[in-house]
Amino acid sequence: MRKYVIAGNWKMNKIVAESVTLAQEIVEVAKNISKVEIVISPTYLATAKVADAVKGSNVKVAVQDVHFEDQGAYTGKVSVDMVKELGVEYVIVGHSEQRQYFGETNETVNKKVKKVLEAGLKPIICIGETLDERNAGKLEDVLSAQINGAYANISNTDALKTIIAYEPVWAIGTGVVATESQAQEAHVIVRSFLKKLYGSSVADSITIQYGGSMNASNAGGLLQQNDIDGGLIGGASLQAESFIAIVEAAEKIA
Ligand code: PGA
């Protein structure tokens, strides 16, 4: 059975002190949550203190990216060993903002996925089409290229440790959420590509999150869809109240 995973992507928001406060608020509520994996992803700077704040709880920590090299002259970058040392379990890879603004490609996503898995961490692999691509009828082509790219030379066993976040780019940070049927339809397509690569039993075990303007009011309907197994949440993860409401909606459905 697939695990529901609700992850908060805090992006470039919150100084360290604010991050710790939010983490503590989430830990409190997480005590009553048993069926949903809760993940929070602060900035690198807040990672160590947030990891301390959630220690001993069922809240896990992610970072928003890593470099695919082990170490060296890569100004501004952070390696998997550096984040692992802090107690991080998940790494967001290939977020559309990385693809859009920082030159992330399907090839660099694949390198990062391999590095993350090698380190014993779990990648949350972000994919999704732009509005132009959707309108041009390229949804399947884009998703297929992103999935085949991300999973190139990844074994069945390793694929089982991954999570996919399907995030239509036009829904991210825009307040325009995909309808339940648009999201479910895309998730079915994503799972069908995973089936081609790994067969049904692996594909049916991989958690596929929806991301893009998910909030407390639309989460329940989205999470009820058969192939939507969680959420990657940006804006609504920045306040404890709205993030927790999404976690609780998932707990009810899980
Ligand atoms: P959003 O961001 O919830 O603010 O749309 C989602 C994401 O970028 O992961």
Overview of this protein structure:
The protein has 254 residues and is α/β, with parallel strands linked by helices. 45% of the residues lie in helices and 16% in strands. The chain has helices spanning 16-30, 44-54, 80-85, 96-101, 106-118, 131-135, 139-150, 156-159, 180-198, 200-203, 219-223, 240-253; strands spanning 4-9, 36-41, 59-63, 90-93, 122-127, 163-166, 207-211, 230-233. An eight-stranded parallel barrel has the order 1-2-3-4-5-6-7-8, surrounded by six helices. Helix 1 (16-30) runs parallel beside helix 2, helix 5 (106-118) packs parallel to helix 7 (139-150) and helix 7 packs across helix 9.
Arrangement of strands in the largest sheet: 1-2-3-4-5-6-7-8
Strand content: 15-25%
Low-pLDDT runs of 5+ residues are: none
Fold-level CATH name: TIM Barrel
The overall number of domains is 1
The largest β sheet comes out as: 8 strands, parallel, barrel
The helix content, as a percent range, equals 40-55%
What is the mean pLDDT?
Answer: 97
Q: What gap, in angstroms, lies between the N and C termini? A: 10 Å
Q: What is the tally of beta strands?
A: 8
Bound molecule kinds, no repeats:
2-phosphoglycolic acid
Instruction: Tell me the overall shape.
Output: globular
Our count of helices gives 12
Could you say which structural class the secondary elements and strand pairing correspond to? alpha/beta
Q: Write down the CATH class.
A: Alpha Beta
**Rg (CA only):** 17 Å
For the record, what is the CATH homologous superfamily label? Aldolase class I
Order of helices and strands: EHEHEHEHHEHHHEHHEHEH
CATH architecture: Alpha-Beta Barrel
